[in-house]
Design a protein that fits this description.
Length: 185
């Protein structure tokens, strides 16, 4: 029952601290015209450096003079190879080699751009830390969320940095063994 109250209290807190009221939407500013006009790859093919492929793959070119490359399986027969290339050439406008090839999407929507004022200098903020009292409050809240099941720990993930073992003052380190038990070393 306490977990239900906790979830309801978090839900109420999130509704109270919305950045904007639902009826107000911040005005959108247009980015303005782009200085470079992007053209589809069929008109101006991109110049790419081709990397070596594994033995079971090969490059095939759909454009003139070795442009508009695609990767196909090398084990196709000559008849299968010709028919595949024919179909790909008929529908080469459907392939997206660059952002400009994607139809109905403005390339400016896909580009990462940071608009800055003139005479502005980039700066880097220092890393922030919580004071010990707030750190204990945050730790207690995280433990509550873990107990309720709203969040859960991830023991190992490829996108997270691996855990580094650091010696404590006593000189004892603790590692997990095959049975997931902590063993001092």
């Amino acid at each position: 029952m306490d977990s239900v109250r906790l979830i309801i209290s978090y839900h109420v807190a999130l509704e109270v601290f919305q950045p904007y009221p639902p009826s107000f939407r911040p005005p959108l500013k247009p980015l303005g015209p782009s200085s470079t006009k992007l053209e589809p790859s069929i008109i101006t093919p991109p110049k790419l450096e081709l990397k070596p492929l594994p033995n079971h793959l090969k490059y095939t070119y759909l454009g003139v003079n070795g442009t508009l490359h695609v990767i196909i399986v090398a084990s196709l027969t000559s008849q299968e190879d010709k028919s595949l290339i024919k179909v790909l050439k008929e529908h080469k406008t459907a392939l997206g080699w660059t952002i400009a090839d994607i139809k109905c999407i403005s390339p400016s929507m896909c580009m990462h751009r940071i608009l800055m004022e003139e005479d502005s200098k980039p700066s880097r903020d220092a890393q922030r830390r919580l004071n010990p009292n707030m750190e204990e409050v945050v730790r207690a809240e995280v433990l509550k969320l873990l107990d309720v099941g709203i969040i859960y720990p991830i023991s190992y993930s490829k996108w997270m940095s691996p855990v580094q073992v650091v010696l404590k003052k006593s000189g004892i380190t603790v590692v997990k063994n095959d049975q997931n038990e902590l063993v001092p070393t």
